[in-house]
Amino acid sequence: MKKPLHFFGRIRWTEFLLAVFLLVINFTLSAAENTGEDWPQFLGPHGNCTSDETGLLDRWPTNGPPLVWDKIIGTGFGAPSVLGNRLVLLHRIANEEIVECLEADTGKSLWHFGYESHFIDPYGYNNGPRCTPLLTSNLCYTLGAEGKLTCLELATGKRVWQRDTAADFNVPNAFFGVGSTPILDGDLLLVMVGGQPNSGMVAFDAKTGKTVWESVGEQNWQGVPMTGWRGERTVRWQSWEKQASYSTPVLATIHGRRQVLCLMRQGLVSLDPKTGAVNFSFWFRSTANDSVNAMSPVVVDDLIFISGAYYKVGSVLLQLNGDGKGVKEIWRGTSLEIHWTTPIYLDGFLYAFSGRNEPDARMRCVEFRTGKLMWDRDESWPPHSARTPGVYGRGSSILAEGKLICLGEGGILGLFQPNPKQPEEISRFQVPQLHHPCWAAPVLSHNKLYLRSEDHLVCLEMAK
């Protein structure tokens, strides 16, 4: 029997509506599963090595997460930052420090901005920049190894302003170049400049680069007890003292008071970010002159954790007084000796790589409020020998979807289930493009994982 034309029209219309319905459902489910976010600053969107992304691989194939792209880059130790589909990297090629913007999903270069650099690392490490770019919706801030502070348009790479902090302030030469990444608080760019006598921290107008305030130095350190050192000693300030460390400051609100916590070379200083007024100064550094502080403070409620790796300086947990003007020690010990990485805090425990050099390398879990060592795993490399295959050495970690993503300094990538009772490794593989030293923490943005060594940048797919 011959069907009327309108019958076939109804079928096609029904099929069309069904196709649209399925498309909408599929799009909605995909959007719900992919909660990708930007990673626009050092240590991620929250400044504490954690990501809120979901829909990530539960474990990795034998050959690791799929490679999206890889790229040979200039020297340096700083991680990239990602905002939308723009990835910005600060690196050095020949005698130029270069701020370069790439398409995050392809690695294609969009623009670059360069300026001359003559930095030479006095200890023989590479001569590239150490800091991570800081990105906003329209601007990009970078700080080079010699202290060149630069603000560029994010869309075009056009220079907005630039300050030469080494020329503008009296800054003693750093051990390994400039390595503390700037942070933003509203319209203020807060930078650990390290100037003498009282310009350890400087606030710049983020739009113009003009100096707003200077703080930290002789005025706050003179006469402070040298806690943890032998004898009844107090600080006698010297005009040649280095102030800048390799720790990036942390903004926190504790007891209702907004403050910026700065782990300087001499120790921890709390400032009012709007004025630079000092709340308290706590001495924390190694007795050895050739030593640095490098981890960022970890803040939980009114507790502040700091750590160092040089000559048994160890760690200390501090509790902020109710008035915000002082701290008291909760515990001090060597269960963690953090070199450059920042520990991951989760459910009352710290997870971190510990140890100053390759032969000292450990992976550890420590109870936050007591300093009790929960477990310890040897990740050491023998001194003066080839790197030991299958061992992380020292490394860095980030937390995403309840799991630790760890990058060892030799390029091993690991996935761990946090467990205070024992180390629980899920997956690991050697990223073939990476080699020692990999000293920048992983960057996770929109389900892509970005890893760098001294001269290589790799993008891996992390979505299920």
Could you characterize what this model shows?
The structure is a single chain. This protein is mainly β and 464 residues long. The chain is 8% helix and 37% strand. It has three helices and 33 strands. The protein has a five-stranded mixed β-sheet with strand order 1-27-28-29-30, with no helix packed on it. Strands 2-33-32-31 form a four-stranded antiparallel β-sheet, with no helix packed on it. The radius of gyration is 24 Å and the shape is globular. The chain starts with a helix and ends with a strand.
How would you concisely characterize the structure shown here?
With 464 residues, the chain is mainly beta.
Question: Major beta sheet, specifics?
Answer: 5 strands, mixed
List how many beta strands DSSP finds.
Answer: 33
Strand content: 35-45%
Shape: globular
Write down the overall mean pLDDT: 92
- The largest sheet has its strands arranged as 1-27-28-29-30
Helix content: under 10%
Low-pLDDT regions: 20-34
Which characteristics define this entry?
five-stranded mixed beta sheet, 464 residues, four-stranded antiparallel beta sheet, 3 helices, mainly beta
Describe the secondary structure blueprint for this structure:
Layout lengths: L4 H29 L16 E2 L15 E6 L8 E3 L2 E8 L2 E8 L5 E8 L17 E2 L3 E5 L4 E6 L5 E6 H4 L14 E3 L2 E4 L9 E5 L5 E5 L2 H4 L28 E5 L2 E7 L3 E5 L6 E6 L14 E3 L2 E5 L7 E6 L6 E7 L10 E3 L2 E6 L7 E6 L5 E6 L16 E6 L2 E6 L3 E5 L8 E6 L12 E3 L2 E5 L3 E6 L3
Parallel strand pairs: 1-27
Antiparallel strand pairs: 2-33, 3-4, 4-5, 5-6, 7-8, 8-9, 9-10, 11-12, 12-13, 13-14, 15-16, 16-17, 17-18, 19-20, 20-21, 21-22, 23-24, 24-25, 25-26, 27-28, 28-29, 29-30, 31-32, 32-33
